[in-house]
């Protein structure tokens, strides 16, 4: 920890992104997703890596896991034994036919029982043509080369590849898991903070560790102090308290107050999508009758869908508030 802190002061003028600086190097240091991580640990220990697909939402440690696993498996042979291709590299059919095939044919001396590794990050952005070209290569060279694919949705990987791979699923990280990692960084970088500031970061990140670390760094470099106000300024999201008040007004039957709260947010320039996503997250955690909560979530979901379809007007959001008020009235009636 001390080493990390001093290196930051040495590199004066240049701040390394914290997401890179604090990217875990070992599989064991990856936070959360215990099942997935322990499976990878077993692979790292035994050395026989199957073809893998890691799938899950952004910022949960997929790329980190693959890199750490490859480093643990190949150690000093990493440079020779690993081919890394991500979405910014050309991965059309030609590359699969030439570059990947050449790599698979290359002779590399590795410790017994180890294989060369091809890392295909963000593999769901590969065209299905390129994926088709890959399946054969995967099979022919399976005794010397193994593949690790990372993607957000495994369904965008063609079936024949899926059936050749072991699937490891990642899910969003819990607030507690994000907090524990934030504390490590906050301590190492000596960031002044109040607990509400970290809570705000966790709220805005919504289970995405990359976003949490980026928001922490952005707040720190902008204000040198992490509190609620600063975090929401930097992240440019509607303030949850403000949205919470709107929900409270609806529940208290004060439709006009709810609408004027909405108007304020809208006039501040927040887009309907920003507002509705925050709205949904507030409702999800709001302390209210379960029946009401479910109805509220349903209606919010419909409104979100209409906004995604392009009807993102002030009227749309007002309509949602009206609908929610109605739901509440009818819930009270019997
Ligand atoms: N589970 C995790 N444990 C610790 N750090 C993480 C974790 N997930 C993400 N991070 C942090 O976020 C950054 C991005 O993670 P990455 O593995 O690239 O996410 P993705 O799942 O989108 O590939 C990493 O550099 C690391 O600092
Ligand atoms: Mg990634």
TrEMBL record:
Organism the protein comes from: Ficus carica
UniProt cross-references to Pfam families, sorted A to Z: AAA, Rep_fac_C
Subunit comment: Heterotetramer of subunits RFC2, RFC3, RFC4 and RFC5 that can form a complex with RFC1.
A GO MF term: ATP binding
GO biological process terms held by the UniProt record: DNA repair; DNA-templated DNA replication
Superkingdom of the organism of origin: Eukaryota
AAA+ ATPase domain residues: 48-174
Role this protein plays: May be involved in DNA replication and thus regulate cell proliferation.
GO annotation, cellular component aspect: DNA replication factor C complex; nucleus
Localisation per UniProt entry: Nucleus
Family designation: Belongs to the activator 1 small subunits family.
Keyword Phosphoprotein belongs to the record: no
Keyword terms: ATP-binding, DNA replication, Nucleotide-binding, Nucleus
Keyword Nucleus annotated: yes
Protein name, UniProt field: AAA+ ATPase domain-containing protein
Transmembrane regions: none
């Amino acid at each position: 920890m001390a080493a990390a802190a001093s290196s930051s002061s040495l590199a004066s003028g240049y701040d390394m992104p914290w997401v890179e600086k604090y990217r875990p190097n070992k599989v064991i240091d990856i936070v959360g997703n215990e099942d997935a991580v322990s499976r990878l640990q077993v692979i790292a220990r035994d050395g026989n890596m199957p073809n893998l697909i890691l799938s899950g939402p952004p910022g949960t440690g997929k790329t980190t896991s693959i890199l750490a696993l490859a480093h643990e498996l190949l150690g000093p042979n990493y440079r020779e034994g690993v081919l890394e291709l991500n979405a910014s590299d050309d991965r059309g059919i030609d590359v699969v036919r030439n570059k990947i095939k050449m790599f698979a044919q290359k002779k590399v001396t590795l410790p017994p029982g180890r294989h060369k590794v091809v890392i295909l990050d963000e593999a769901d952005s590969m065209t299905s043509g390129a994926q088709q070209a890959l399946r054969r290569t995967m099979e022919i060279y399976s005794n010397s080369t193994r593949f690790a694919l990372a993607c957000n949705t495994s369904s965008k990987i063609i079936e024949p590849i899926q059936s050749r791979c072991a699937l490891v699923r990642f899910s969003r990280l819990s607030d507690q898991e994000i907090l524990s990692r934030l504390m490590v960084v906050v301590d190492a970088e000596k960031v002044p903070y109040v607990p509400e500031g970290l809570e705000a970061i966790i709220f805005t990140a919504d289970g995405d560790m990359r976003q949490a670390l980026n928001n922490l760094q952005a707040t720190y470099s902008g204000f040198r102090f992490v509190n609620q106000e600063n975090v929401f300024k930097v992240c440019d999201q509607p303030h949850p308290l403000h949205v919470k008040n709107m929900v409270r007004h609806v529940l208290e039957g004060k439709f006009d107050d709810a609408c004027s709260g909405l108007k304020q947010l809208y006039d501040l320039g927040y887009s309907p999508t920003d507002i509705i996503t925050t709205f949904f997250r507030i409702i999800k955690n709001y302390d209210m009758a379960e029946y009401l909560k479910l109805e509220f979530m349903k209606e919010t979901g419909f409104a979100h869908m209409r906004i995604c379809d392009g009807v993102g007007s002030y009227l749309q959001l007002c309509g949602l508030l009206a609908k929610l008020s109605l739901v509440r009235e009818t819930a009270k009636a019997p």
